[in-house]
Specification:
- It is built from 33 helices and 14 strands.
- The strands form five sheets. Strands 6, 11, 12, 13 and 14 form a five-stranded antiparallel sheet that branches. A three-stranded antiparallel sheet has the order 3-2-5, sandwiched between helices. Strands 1-4 form a two-stranded antiparallel sheet.
- It starts with 74 loop residues before the first helix and ends in an 11-residue tail after the last helix.
- Mean pLDDT is 84; it is low at 1-60 and 590-594.
- One of its GO terms (cellular component) is membrane.
Length: 1077
């Protein structure tokens, strides 16, 4: 073999970097490419070994193919080596150009610059809940749009007559006596309200009282806050009368008797439901009701604290049991408060802000949106400038020793959320900074580190362009933001594998004839390994397509595209960067060269070849980490006792994990949005868990509609068109005749008064909270207006022929829709606004009619446990079944029962999450098995690798249970994508084991030597990068960080120590040729 004399100072380029070599005889060329001969003479060259003497080739044995030249080198690699800088710049420009086009075609066209699809309306299109939801929702939208004018357009909106924002205060007691046990704690709560009500300028921003007629020369006053402190600071307190009321309500049987009589005797409603009652009892009920009314009429928070505040608390404990008056007191006391327990550790209150700030005339829908947005922005500035500092001081834990105060305000909560998201995003930046520096440490090049981070980062916009512009998938889920963490983990792993293979190649003298030969080997070696893992991971993410939820589908497809693009960029952009690094930067600076320094002569490949020729392969120093995996870890695994230890330990742990995983159950609590220690989340948790449903709480509206048919879903594809849900359908036979109206009113009365529904339907003033437009339509039909609200509320019209002739609706409805509703507490809401959904009037005809009832348990906010929602849903469904038996005859058509706050569809989504979590993860494992079978053709390698992935899945779920997690929507989504995250390491080692030569011992040594360092670096990068996510306030990212860390850690442990120990123990031989199954 001819050799060049090495310079005396020459040493291997990566004397501490290189990864242990492969078998020198191992070939990775095409089948028609013969073995590269050893002993090629090396001469100086100006660039990339261009003057190197060609290898000796037997033309009879080697021929050029479509992909490789006659020397066995890849044509693509030859092309890159000839013009690396031009190709590198072209690829950079290509990525930047697609990013620019993405900005032009997607971001600039997005509403408010937000390219994400709103997460609402996320459901299974074929489920009965979503069908009924869209049937009513789309019908409501259509008839509203078809009305000739809006209900408010052209009308005068009085100054501060509508609620524009609320400030919600939540208090938590810190003493055994509770919040109402001491003067100090009561006054501390009042301080929160005094921030506003002691400020004279608040009169210009508060919700004004339009219910009370104005006396001459007086101005409207602010509505009092909704708080129990109204009774502790009354303008007048009659202690004797309060004591008398308490004594009356204390007497056995009096509470039940008063509740049975009060609705009729005090309110004059539904007296037909009251059986014969003695005159004495009627007088007693009337006097007791009057005394209570006298006391409560002075509750206005305009006086001093009642000296005997314990009496106030005791009175509240009894009034909370009186159906007619409980709404005055039940809002501010917790669920444990009662006449037997006068301690309430929690309280709450609401301050109401009014709008518009100036009297104005209502415009059309678009004009109203613009005006409302402007006023919201103005109000936000007012709060920040005038009140926010004092609110923060009140909420400071150091301000009051006896209690903790929390607040949130609708006008500024958006800024609070943005602040939280920004802080979490900054934490995520630390993850990428670590990835960058870890790549820098392992490549020992700033240039390659920057290129590596560039290709990881730009995998997102390039994939986004393909996803949205090429594939025309318009549904871009908020879940897709997780793809940046996916590609950071997998992209860094691919970079390590490629770079480590490049380092290994310098120890193979047969590969150092020229750079084309060397890079062709690297390209083939890494291309196959990364192609297998990328294909497996892509397929695992695509398994999310089995779920009917478009948000999860969108994430799965987008993540798969991102992984594919990352693979392409590693094999193109990073490969080109390595060539440039080789020619210009490698070995020139201890810390890596940051700028082009000219082409090196001789090249690093020539130097490495010269060194190997001079001192021999065996004398070359290799890096200690690689040697550790080759000589320490591999040999440790080869000891039978060690293998038995690992298999036993992993067996025991897997058993424990299975035991814990079987305890996993669907969540039974509201799902948290933020960290449990965040003040906003604390207040939300207290509101969800510590208070009973109060009279003033907003309940979930459940609708019963007749006249609507099932929505037509033809052509609906949410991925391609997120805004299209189908076309609303109506029942042509629907007839709003007199009997239909009568039956609807009877249904309303039943929902209001039926005692069987006390726990199901919210009660207000002793009646069920029901929205029944027929009551007000009947009165309007008889009187031509709704000025006499007592007539409406007492049902005076029932003694007359009140039903409307359907032919008269065209004349009646326009005026009726703009009349003020008698059931609006503020006295400003129109019929059209109050019954926006219930009245299906399109301006010409009544397309449908609906009745609504408020749930006593569910509310429109938060995410309740599936079991809680389903219990309520089943009860409302029973009512629909019973009502439909009557109304389907008189009105024609079947009932549509649904809510419009997505509670019932989300209930079904929670069930889908659970099913999809299991199905997607198992399907991902099955696909990993198929890919490994295709790539290795070895059954036991594929089987054991698949079992390893299953063990990772079980381990992660088991630890989730140990951490106290239940199966909510976040956990279900994460479990569904476990297979996508857990396949890489075991697949890498399985592939390395399969392509190695020799017996089991030699294959394990080669697998650890070749990929141990790469897999280790990938694990370190992913685990450390996930740690900052632990500290995120947003629970999804915090849980995702924990999930990512657990999945990667278990994947690495099982792949290195369980999987390799199992192969070493079983020693199943592999055939070198032929069928290997």
């Amino acid at each position: 073999m001819a050799k060049t004399s090495p310079e005396s100072s020459v040493s291997p380029i990566h004397d501490l970097e290189g990864v242990p070599s492969y078998d020198a005889d191992e070939q990775f060329f095409d089948n028609d490419a013969a073995t590269v001969e050893h002993g090629v003479a090396v001469t100086s060259s100006e660039e990339s070994g261009s003057n190197i003497k060609p290898m000796e080739v037997d033309d009879a044995e080697r021929k050029a193919t479509m992909w490789s030249d006659e020397r066995g080198n890849l044509k693509a690699v030859n092309f890159v080596i000839r013009a690396p800088c031009k190709i590198f710049i072209l690829l950079i420009v290509f990525c930047l150009a697609l990013s620019f086009l993405l900005n032009v075609l997607v971001f600039r066209k997005a509403e408010n610059g937000n390219p994400f699809t709103p997460p609402s309306n996320e459901f299974d299109l074929k489920d009965v809940r979503s069908i009924q939801y869209d049937s009513l929702r789309l019908a409501k939208d259509q008839v509203s749009a078809n009305r000739k004018v809006t209900e408010l357009e052209g009308q005068t909106i009085s100054k501060q007559s509508e609620t524009s924002a609320i400030a919600y205060w939540v208090f938590e007691g810190e003493t055994p006596t509770g919040l109402f046990g001491t003067e100090e704690s009561i006054q501390a709560m009042k301080n929160a309200y005094d921030i506003f009500y002691q400020d004279e300028s608040f009169q210009d921003y508060c919700l004004l009282d339009y219910r009370t007629p104005l006396a001459n020369g007086t101005e409207r006053q602010c509505n009092a806050p909704l708080t129990p402190l109204l009774m502790y600071y009354p303008s007048e307190w009659d202690e004797e009368k309060a004591a008398a009321v308490i004594e009356e309500l204390k007497a056995p049987g009096n509470l039940d008797k008063f509740n049975s009589l009060a609705l009729c005797i005090v309110q004059g409603l539904y007296c037909e439901l009251v059986e014969d009652v003695a005159l004495q009892d009627k007088i007693w009920a009337g006097m007791l009701g009057k005394n209570i009314s006298d006391i409560t009429s002075k509750w206005d928070m305009k006086g001093d604290l009642v000296s005997n505040f314990t009496q106030v608390t005791e009175l509240a404990s009894y009034l909370i049991q009186v159906d007619l008056f409980k709404g005055l007191v039940d809002f501010g006391f917790d669920k444990t408060f009662s006449s037997e327990n006068l301690v309430s550790q929690y309280s709450r209150g609401i301050v109401f802000w009014g709008g518009p700030l100036k009297e104005r005339t209502a415009g059309n829908e678009d004009e109203e949106k613009d005006v409302n947005k402007s006023e919201r922005d103005e109000l936000k500035e007012i709060v920040k400038v005038n009140y926010l500092d004092e609110m923060n001081l009140q909420a400071d834990p150091k301000t009051h020793e006896s209690l903790n105060s929390y607040y949130f305000m609708t006008a500024i909560i958006g800024d609070t959320i943005i602040s939280i998201v920004t802080q979490d995003a900054l934490l995520a930046i630390f993850s990428f900074i670590f990835v960058f520096f870890w790549i820098r440490i392992n490549t020992q090049s700033w240039f390659l580190a920057f290129v590596g981070l560039f290709e990881i980062f730009f995998s997102i916009p390039v994939a986004w362009f393909i996803f949205t512009v090429v594939f025309q998938i318009q549904y871009f889920s908020t879940l897709n933001s997780l793809a940046i963490f996916v590609v950071a983990a997998i992209g860094a792993d691919d970079i390590f594998i490629f770079m480590d293979a490049y380092k290994q190649s310098q120890y193979h003298p047969e590969l150092l004839g020229d750079l084309a030969t060397r890079m062709s080997w690297v390209y083939r070696r890494t291309g196959v390994a990364m192609a297998i893992t990328s294909a497996t991971t892509c397929a695992a993410f695509l398994c999310t397509l089995i779920t009917p939820l478009p948000g999860v589908q969108s994430f799965g497809v987008f993540a798969a595209v991102v992984i594919f693009i990352d693979y392409v960029l590693v094999m193109s952009l990073f490969c080109t960067a390595v060539v440039i690094y080789h020619q210009r930067f490698e070995g020139r600076s201890k810390f890596g060269c940051c700028c082009p320094c000219g082409v090196q002569n001789p090249t690093p490949t020539e130097k490495a070849k010269a060194v190997l020729d001079a001192i021999g392969d065996d004398a070359v120093k290799r890096d200690r980490v690689s040697e550790f995996f080759r000589n320490k870890v591999a040999k440790f695994i080869e000891v039978p006792l060690h293998r038995i230890f690992f298999l036993v330990v992993f067996g025991i742990w897997t058993g424990v994990a299975i035991w814990q995983a079987l305890k996993l159950e669907a969540t039974k609590e509201n799902e948290q949005f933020l960290s449990e220690n965040h003040p906003l989340q604390k207040s939300i948790t207290i509101l969800n868990e510590q208070f009973p449903t109060a009279n003033d709480d907003i309940g979930l509206k459940v609708y019963y509609a007749w006249g609507i048919d099932e929505v037509n879903r033809d052509g609906v594809n949410r991925l391609l068109d997120p805004e299209y849900f189908g076309v609303p359908q109506y029942i042509s036979e629907f007839d709003f005749n007199q009997q239909c109206q009568t039956d609807l009113l009877n249904l309303c009365d039943d929902l209001k008064t039926n005692q069987d529904y006390r726990e199901l339907i919210k009660r207000r003033d002793g009646l069920g909270a029901v929205y029944c437009f027929v009551e007000e339509l009947a009165a309007y039909n008889l009187k031509g207006n709704l000025d006499d609200c007592e007539y409406v509320k007492r049902g005076g019209f029932k003694n007359e022929t009140w039903q409307v002739d359907p032919a008269d609706l065209v004349d009646i409805m326009p005026g009726f829709m703009q009349a003020k509703s008698c059931f609006d507490d503020e006295g400003v809401e129109t019929i059209g606004a109050r019954y926006l959904t219930e009245i299906g009037w399109n301006g010409n005809e009544l397309k449908y009619a609906a009745v609504a009832a408020e749930s006593n348990v569910l509310d429109p906010f938060g995410q309740d446990a599936e079991s809680v929602t389903r219990k309520e849903y089943d009860q409302f469904l029973e009512i629909a079944t019973e009502a439909n038996r009557i109304l389907t005859q008189s009105c024609s058509g079947n009932v549509v029962m649904t809510d419009l706050d997505e509670k019932f569809v989300f209930m079904n989504n929670q069930n889908i999450y659970v099913q999809s979590a299991l199905q997607s993860s198992l399907l991902g494992v099955a696909i990993a098995f198929v890919v490994l079978m295709i790539s290795t053709h070895v059954f036991h390698i594929a089987l054991f690798a698949s079992i390893s992935i299953i063990c990772v899945l079980i381990s992660v779920v088991g630890v989730m249970v140990m951490l106290g997690w239940s199966l909510g929507s976040i956990e279900s989504i994460l479990i569904a994508i476990i297979a996508g995250f857990s396949v890489d390491y075991v697949v890498h080692l399985a592939h390395a084991y399969e392509i190695a030569k020799g017996d089991t011992h030699q294959r394990i040594t080669e697998a650890f030597g070749d990929l141990g360092i790469s897999v280790f670096n990938g694990m370190i990068t992913s685990v450390v990068a996930s740690i900052p996510l632990f500290f995120c306030q947003l629970q999804f990212f915090a849980k995702f960080g924990t999930f990512l860390c657990l999945t990667i850690a278990f994947s690495w442990l099982y792949a290195n120590f369980w999987y390799m120990s199992l192969l070493a123990t079983l020693k199943i031989p592999l055939k070198e040729q032929g069928c290997r199954l």
